[in-house]
Amino acid sequence: MHLHRIQLKRIKSLAASVPRSLFHLRVQTRAFNVHHDTISLRLASRNYLRTRKFLLMFYDTGSVLVIFGMFTAVALLVWTMVSLLSSTFLRVTAPDTSASLLKRAVEVTTRATTYSRVTHAVNPIIPGLTVPLKHLPLILLSLCISQIVHESGHAITAAIHRIPMLAAGASMTFMFPAAFVTLPSARVEELSSFDRLRVVTSGCFHNLTLWLMLLAAGWSGIGQRILLVGYEDVFTRGLIVAHVEADSPLSMHLPVGSFLTTLDDLPLHSSRDAWSTYLLEPNPAVYKQGWCVDVSRLSDDHQCCVDTDSSTSSSSSSSCFVSFESTIEEYCTDPVPILSKMHNRCDSSTSCLESQSCIKPREDRDILRITVNHEGAGTEHERIVLWSGPRYEVWEQVQTTHFAPRFGIIPLGLPLVFADFFQYLKLTNLSLYLFNSLPLPALDGSQLLIILLEIVFTKWSHTPSTMIDIEALRTRGSRSYERRVQQVLRTFAVIGTCTLLGSCVMLGIIEWMIV
C-alpha cells in the first residue's frame, strides 16, 4: 500500500512510469477508481448499513490477528536465529570423521519439497536450491495472486472509510512481481487510530483469510473431487509414475504411466503418504518375508558387513544379509539374483529346503526393491527394479500420482502441477501475512507499530478535558515527551527486527557454505 498526497495534476487512466533501469518496471491505472468510489458510496448509504457494520467487525477481528501475527513473526525470527546458531556451532565443532554422515543427513532433510524435517522455524523458498527450479513459474504466479489479494484488503477498507483510491498497479523488480494501491496520505492521517489500524492491517488479514480457506479446502478434499471429473483414483492399485528425471538411471526402468505397487514389502496402497514417508523417513526397511538361498552361495567372508563406507560398498557386488530369524547371523552375497525374484519367499528357514537358508538384507543396507507393473493389473506383469543408494534420491528423481486420466488428451502430470501450485499459494499467503506484519521499513508492520504506540500512549496518558491553561501547557509538554518515547521505542523495534532478519540471513549463508 502506497500513500501519496493528492496532486492537482491529472494523470491518465492508464500510465506506465518510465523505468530507471531495465530491472524495475512499474505500471499503474485509474480504471478501478470509479468502481472503488461506487463501493464507497454504497457502503455509506443506509441500505448497506448492516453490511458496513459487519465489515467493520470483520476487519477489527483482522486487526487483532495481524497484531498477533507481528509478535509471532518476531518470535519465529528469534527461534530461527537460535536454531541457526546452534546448528552452525555443531557443524563447526563436529569432528571431521562425521562430516560426510552429517552432510548426508542434512541433504535428506533439505531436498525434500515438504521440508518438514528441517528444524528451522523459517526456511526460504529458493528455486534451484530449496525447491526445484522448474517450480519458478508456479511460485511467481502464486506470488502475484497473493499480492493482489493483499492489496484488495487495503482498497476495501479505504472504501469503508470514504478514502478515494488514486491508482492501482503492478511492478516488476528483476523477475519478482508486486502489486500496489495508492491512497491519499492526508486523508488516511485524518482517520482515528483504530480506523487507520483497519486500513493498515487489512492486507495481511486478507492473506491470512485466504490461507485459512485453502487449508479448509485441502482438508475437505474438494480439489480431489474436482479432479475426479477427468481423472480416476487408482490408489487401491498403487501409484502411477508421472515423471522421471531425464538424467536418472531409473528413467529406463520406470517408464511414465507404469504402476508401482510396493516398496520393499510395503504396499503403496496402505496409506496416501506411504511413498513419501517410506522414502524420506529414516525408518528401517520393511521385509515381511525373506528369501530361500542355497547355503553354498553365501560367503563366509563378512567384509561387506563390516565395511560401512558407502563408496566401497557400492563398488562391491556383494551386500550384507542376515538370517530372517536372527540378525546375528550375517552373510555376504550378490543381492541382484536374490532380491529380483518374486517367488521363493520364506518366513523361516524351515520353509526352505535343507540346503537353503532364509535370509534378508540387513536394515542399514541402501537397497530398495521397487515392484513395477506396466499393465496396472495382475501379478503376471510385475517385475522388480533394484535401487542401490539412499532412498530419498528415488523420491527426488521420480514423481508419482494416484490419478489416472479418463481420457487420453488429459495430461498425466496435471494433478501434480495443481498440487504444487496449491502448496505454493498457501506458502506465499502465509509468508506475506507474517513478513508484512514485521516492523520493518516499507512494510505494513512499520505503520502498525506506529499506530499501536499511539493507541497505548493515548490510553495511558489520557487527561480530562476540563483542565485550566496551566495544566494544558503541561499536557502539551508531556505529549512531546510521549512522542520522543514513541520514536525511541519504534526505532528500537525496527533496528532489533532488522538485526534479527540480517542475522538469520547471514547465519543461513554460513550454514549453506559449511554444508
CA(first)-CA(last) distance: 39 Å
Overall average pLDDT: 82
Q: Largest beta sheet, briefly?
A: 6 strands, antiparallel
Helix content: 40-55%
Individual helix count: 15
Brief digest:
With 515 residues, the chain is an alpha+beta fold.
Which tags fit this structure?
515 residues; five-stranded mixed β-sheet
Summarize the SSE layout with pairings:
Elements: E1 2-4, E2 14-21, E3 24-29, H1 33-44, H2 49-93, H3 99-111, H4 136-160, E4 167-173, E5 176-184, H5 185-189, H6 193-220, H7 222-227, E6 231-233, E7 239-244, E8 259-263, E9 266-267, H8 274-280, E10 290-294, H9 303-306, H10 310-315, E11 319-323, E12 330-333, H11 336-339, E13 345-346, E14 356-361, E15 367-373, E16 382-388, H12 391-397, E17 398-401, E18 403-405, H13 414-436, H14 444-460, H15 469-514
Parallel strand pairs: 1-5
Antiparallel strand pairs: 2-3, 3-4, 4-5, 6-18, 7-8, 7-17, 8-9, 8-15, 10-13, 10-14, 11-12, 11-14, 15-16
Helix pairs in contact: 1-4, 2-6, 2-13, 2-15, 4-6, 4-13, 6-13, 6-14, 8-12, 14-15
